Amino acid sequence: MEIKYIDPGIEQFIGRLDETTSAKLIRTIDLLERFGHALRMPHSKKIEERLFELRVTGRQSVRVFYTFHQETIVLLHGYAKKSQRIPEKELATTRRKRMGLAES
Length: 104
Known about the structure:
- The chain is of the alpha+beta class.
- Helices cover 40% and strands 31% of the residues.
- The chain has 3 helices and 5 strands, in the order βααββββα.
- A hairpin with a 2-residue loop joins strand 4 and strand 5.
- It starts with a strand and ends with a helix.
- The mean pLDDT is 92.
């Protein structure tokens, strides 16, 4: 499947990560591109209807939210994980971006 970035902020987010975490995230994105819907834990987790997160752990834990839109995987939003729960602010940002995708 094809990967699409709807927000240049995702690429900036990846660029700000330390080298090891960035490499792990890029590898995980490659796995997502290769396996699509079949990618599961520990790399991917369903958050809610049509919303998933890529999971990268290590010295720095990060999450990247994504959805499937037609035949494309759309990366919506990324953040550095600091707690067990997903911060509501991060979910709200992701939902807003997903809604914008549905309207386009």
